[in-house]
Write a structure and sequence with these properties.
- The chain is globular, with a radius of gyration of 30 Å.
- Helix content is about 35%, strand content about 20%.
- The chain is of the alpha/beta class.
- It is built from 13 helices and 14 strands.
């Protein structure tokens, strides 16, 4: 039985489009070969049909005069994947991406003096990790990760594994590094009066964020800060004194702001807990700022003998008072949950404080965790390989927040 011409045209067009995905040069020769007048008309019908099909599948139709036979085949939709046993692979669109990069530098602030060592350099080093990304993509969020005592930026980078999450979620990570000339144990001086007042090392960290924006374009509405131990205490100070600079803050095994600050009081605060005065801190905050403090995530182990867990409780009390003291604020709703231990993670208690349905404070009390990063690389000090994974918890909390 003789086939109808339209059927032949359609099947020939489909054949040529599929043939190009397997033998591109062959299909190109067939569609460009010299033809008799009769076959020339046949090819014109095939070309018209292929163009009509492509118009249905592409967002912006292209006029026939702008297309060559080769371009028609190049615009054809990718054929369905073939059977796994076949050696033929479907063509994938090529996407130009930049490789992951790490920048090293330093930042200085004129307000970065720390007493009583006022003549020491007001400058600290940093590492900036930029994940693989599409060229010409949108500005990146930034997570500032501040290490603890006896750590370096590189060790904290490796131990927390935050870069792996940055690769998947698409954000940059800034790792400030404390200098031994500023603290022989590389602790951040959260207890030093200038820093406790929002200057000193707080000012230097803010300059690092500005420096990061010179390397890459940042989404300034999505800059976050997190820290461990003394770095966690510094992160809390940054959020308390510079709320407009950060969309959220996470404090792992850290401490709340201390009034009055001093090195002698810091040792007692680590062992017994900061004697917080939420009322005084709230009054000072709202006399200075007109915006609410950033949402806060607290992580602390109840077996921590270096920084007592009472500091986590004190920090939550401070933040609750700050939020409830805001103009026209109402009392925050409270929600508590218990999570049992698993093969990969310890049991933990979770307390959430809500404002109009939004979580503004979350506290995770991790049972059995000592003074270590939860879910970190156990090959490095101050890391506990058993979860819950602190880095994952921090980003899940951060990713919902914008300033």
């Amino acid at each position: 039985m003789r086939r109808q011409p339209c059927v032949v045209v359609r099947r020939t067009a489909r054949f040529l489009m599929h043939l190009d995905s397997v033998f591109p040069k062959t299909a190109s020769l067939l569609i460009k070969a010299p033809l008799s007048p009769k076959l020339h008309r046949f090819r014109a019908r095939i070309t018209a049909l292929m163009l009509r099909k492509l118009r249905q599948k592409t967002a912006a139709p292209v006029p026939p005069a702008a297309l060559t036979p080769r371009e028609l085949i190049d615009l054809a939709p990718t054929p369905a994947p073939v059977a796994p046993t076949s050696i033929v692979e479907a063509k994938l669109p090529s996407v130009e991406r930049t490789a992951a990069r790490t920048f090293e530098g330093s930042a200085r602030s004129s307000d970065g003096a720390t007493s009583p060592w006022l003549l020491l350099p007001r400058e600290r080093a940093y590492r900036l990790y930029v994940p693989p990304r599409l060229k010409e993509s949108a500005p990146l969020p930034l997570v500032v990760m501040i290490h603890g005592c006896r750590q370096t930026a590189a060790a904290f980078e490796r131990g927390t594994r935050m870069n792996a999450i940055a690769d998947r979620a698409g954000f940059a990570v800034l790792y400030p590094e404390q200098a031994t000339f500023a603290n022989i144990r590389r602790c951040w001086n959260w207890f030093e009066p200038n820093t406790a007042a929002g200057n000193g090392e707080c000012a230097i960290i803010l300059e690092m964020v500005k420096a990061a924006n010179q390397h890459i374009e940042l989404d300034r509405s999505r800059v976050y800060v997190a820290g461990m131990s003394s770095g966690g205490a510094l992160a809390a100070l940054l959020a308390y004194h510079h709320p407009d600079a950060f969309a959220a803050v996470a404090v792992h095994s850290g401490l709340p702001p201390m009034m009055p600050p001093s090195a002698a009081a810091a040792i007692s605060a680590m062992e017994k807990g900061v004697r917080v005065d939420p009322e005084a801190l709230a009054d000072s905050y709202w006399n200075t700022h007109e915006v609410s403090p950033p949402p806060l995530l607290i992580l602390h182990g109840d077996a921590d003998e270096t920084v007592t867990e009472r500091n986590a409780t004190g920090l939550m009390q401070v933040w609750q008072k700050l939020l409830e003291s805001a103009p026209l604020a109402v009392q925050l709703a409270r929600d508590e949950r218990e999570f049992t231990d698993t093969k990969a993670a310890r049991a933990y208690s979770q307390i959430d404080l809500h404002r109009e349905g939004r979580i503004v404070v979350r506290s995770l009390r991790i049972h059995g965790l000592a003074h270590a990063w939860s879910g970190g690389d156990h090959a490095l000090p101050f890391n506990d390989e058993k979860g819950p994974d602190a880095a994952v918890a921090i980003w899940r909390f951060f990713e919902r927040q914008r300033r």
